[in-house]
Write a structure and sequence with these properties.
The chain has one domain: predicted glycosyltransferase like domains (Thrombin, subunit H), CATH 2.40.10.220. The termini are far apart. A 5-stranded mixed β-sheet has the order 1-3-4-5-2. It has 2 helices and 5 strands; from the N terminus they run βαββββα. It is of the alpha+beta class and 118 residues long. GO terms for molecular function: cyclic-di-GMP binding. This is Pilus assembly protein PilZ. InterPro entries: PilZ_domain. Pfam families: PilZ. Residues 11-93 form the PilZ domain.
Length: 118
């Protein structure tokens, strides 16, 4: 029995119901796109995370096998929400999801409103 097996990625369901919430969670800085996920679980950079993402006005759930690309710790400065930034993988499904998110956000992408991410 191999005791050094890598742990299975955790599964997180993220249902974003409003465009403003999607704007706050989306991470356009990542080339492949990504989302911020509020969570109290401890993650490390590079951890594999399997996200089931629901978007506003869309009944479909989008599975994303992403990686933790940053961590907002508890009691972070400026009262930031604790959680993780998950980078989408560089694959065709993620490319289409990024396009879909950016279509939903439209002109909001160039907004100066604060987000959960930067």
């Amino acid at each position: 029995m191999n005791t050094t097996a890598t742990p299975r990625p955790s599964v997180i369901q993220l249902a974003i119901k409003e465009k403003a919430a999607l704007y706050a969670a989306y991470i356009p800085l990542f080339t492949e796109g990504g989302v911020f996920i509020p969570t109290n679980r401890d993650y490390k950079l590079g951890d594999d995370v399997y996200v089931l993402l629901s978007l506003p006005d869309d009944t479909q759930r989008y599975p994303v096998a992403g990686k933790v690309a940053w961590v907002t710790p508890p009691r972070a400065a400026a009262n930031r929400t604790r959680g993780v930034g998950v980078r989408f993988p560089a694959d065709e499904k993620s490319k289409l999801l990024k396009i879909k998110i950016e279509e939903i956000l439209g002109s909001h992408l160039s907004s100066e409103r604060p987000t959960q991410t930067i």
